[in-house]
């Protein structure tokens, strides 16, 4: 269960291209939609929200969104849009949730330990970095742990090998490979033919036929 963090927001009436002016005021545009709320356009303090993201994950974190000092609304971050060049946050989508109903989201996989096969030259390959889960909002974990220390070269772990925390259901296909330890790639030497065909001497054929 993750800690609930409050986020302050203000309603905004300026939308579309004019919302770019919010950046000059140190704010970022946002919207809220979902269970029990009407869709609204909002704005957040850009610096404060960025600091919140630094100290909390967004996939499984439940926030208390306080809009213009109204009653807090339980939300999750549904989507973050970033500036392609600067990497700064351009827009936030908040999803209002029912704390008594399960939600589906994705959380990071936390790989624990170093595989035994890596110590003998194997290469760890991560096929999955996140896992899709379902749980009540307050049961959502920040991540799902998987211990890889026993993996030898040629061995792999599948979704069925993951241990879900209490109250959490993993939604991904059980046969999907999560990670594997591969043998190191070996350079194959090209086989060069050593057979040499002696060229026929000029006029040799003619002499043989004579």
Q: Would you write up a description of this structure?
A:
With 210 residues, this protein is mostly beta strands. The chain has 2 domains: 5-96, Ribosomal Protein L25, Chain P (Beta Barrel); 103-182, Beta Complex (RNA Polymerase Alpha Subunit, Chain A, domain 2), CATH 2.170.120.20. Helix content is 7%, strand content 38%. It is built from 2 helices and 13 strands, in the order βββαββββββββββα. A 6-stranded mixed beta barrel has the order 1-3-2-6-5-4. Strands 10-7-9-12 form a 4-stranded mixed β-sheet, with no helix packed on it. Strand 5 and strand 6 (89-96) form a beta hairpin. The radius of gyration is 29 Å and the shape is elongated. Residues 187-195 have low confidence and may be disordered.
């Amino acid at each position: 269960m993750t800690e609930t963090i409050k986020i302050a927001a203000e309603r905004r009436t300026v939308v579309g291209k004019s919302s770019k002016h919010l950046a000059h005021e140190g704010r970022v545009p946002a919207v809220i939609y979902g269970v029990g709320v009407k869709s609204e356009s909002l704005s957040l303090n850009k610096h404060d929200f960025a600091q919140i993201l630094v100290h909390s994950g967004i996939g499984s974190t439940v926030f208390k969104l306080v809009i213009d000092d109204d009653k807090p609304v339980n939300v999750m971050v549904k989507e973050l849009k970033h500036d392609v060049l600067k990497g700064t946050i351009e827009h936030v989508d908040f999803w209002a949730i029912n704390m008594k109903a399960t939600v589906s989201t994705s959380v990071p996989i936390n790989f624990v330990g170093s595989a035994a096969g890596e110590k003998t030259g194997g290469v760890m390959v991560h096929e999955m970095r996140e896992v899709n889960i379902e749980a009540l909002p307050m049961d959502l974990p920040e991540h799902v742990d998987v211990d890889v220390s026993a993996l030898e070269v040629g061995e792999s772990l599948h979704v069925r090998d993951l241990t879900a925390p209490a109250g959490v259901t993993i939604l991904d296909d059980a046969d999907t490979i999560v990670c594997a330890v591969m043998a190191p790639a070996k350079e194959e030497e090209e086989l060069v033919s050593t057979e040499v065909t002696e060229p026929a001497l000029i006029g040799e054929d003619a002499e043989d036929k004579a």
